[in-house]
Amino acid sequence: MSYMSQCDWDNQEKGAPSYQKNSAMARIKPYELRQKTKVELLSQLKDLKAELALLRVAKVTGGAPNKLSKIKVVRLNIAQVLTVISQKQKSALREAYKNKKYLPLDLRPKKTRAIRRRLTKHQASLKTEREKKKETYFPLRKFAIKV
User: What CDD domains does the record point to (predicted)?
Assistant: First the structure.
C-alpha cells in the first residue's frame, strides 16, 4: 500500500481547519464586538466568565472532552471582549483630551526615556542675548575667488 492511498486526500472536507470543526463554540468576531455598547460588552463578559467557571467545574469533576476543549475558546473570547472594552475607553479618552493642553501620561507617546527628557526643538534653537549680539556684530564672512 502506497503513502498516497493511506492519506486519502480527496475525501477530506474543504473549508475550516480541523481544529475549528471540533470546537463546540465559535470565536467572537472583534468587529461585532466594536458595534456593541459598553453595557452589552460588560454583560457579555459576565456571561463568558460564568461559562468559564462552569467549564472549570466540569474539568474538575471529569466532564466531557468537548467541554475541556471549550475552555480555551472561552478564555480567548474573554480576552477579546476585555481588549475591545479597553480600546473603546482609550479612544474615548483620546477624543476627550484632543484639544487640551496636557495629556494623561498613558495617552502620551512612549518613545524612550532619553527622548522624553530631551529639550523641545524650540527650546534647543533658542539663543542667549550674548550669542545674538555676537552674530549681528560678527556675521559670517563671504569669500570670493578671483580668476
Answer: Ribosomal_L29_HIP
pTM for this predicted structure: 0.65
Cell of 26: 465559535
Total of domains in the chain: 1
pLDDT tens track for 96-147: 999 999 999 999 999 999 999 999 999 999 999 999 999 999 999 999 998 8
pLDDT digits (tens, 9 = 90+) for 59-96: 999 878 888 899 999 999 999 999 999 999 999 999 99
| Helix locations, 27-96, DSSP H | 30-34, 38-60, 65-96
The domain spanning residue 80 has which CATH number? Answer: 1.10.287.310
Q: Element (H or E) spanning 28, and its range?
A: none
Question: CA distances (Å), 1 to each of 5, 6, 8, 10, 40, in order?
Answer: 7, 7, 12, 17, 57
Proportion of the chain above pLDDT 90, given as a percent: 73
Distance between CA atoms of residues 25 and 68, nearest Å: 12
Per the structure, the complete domain to which residue 20 belongs is given by 15-100
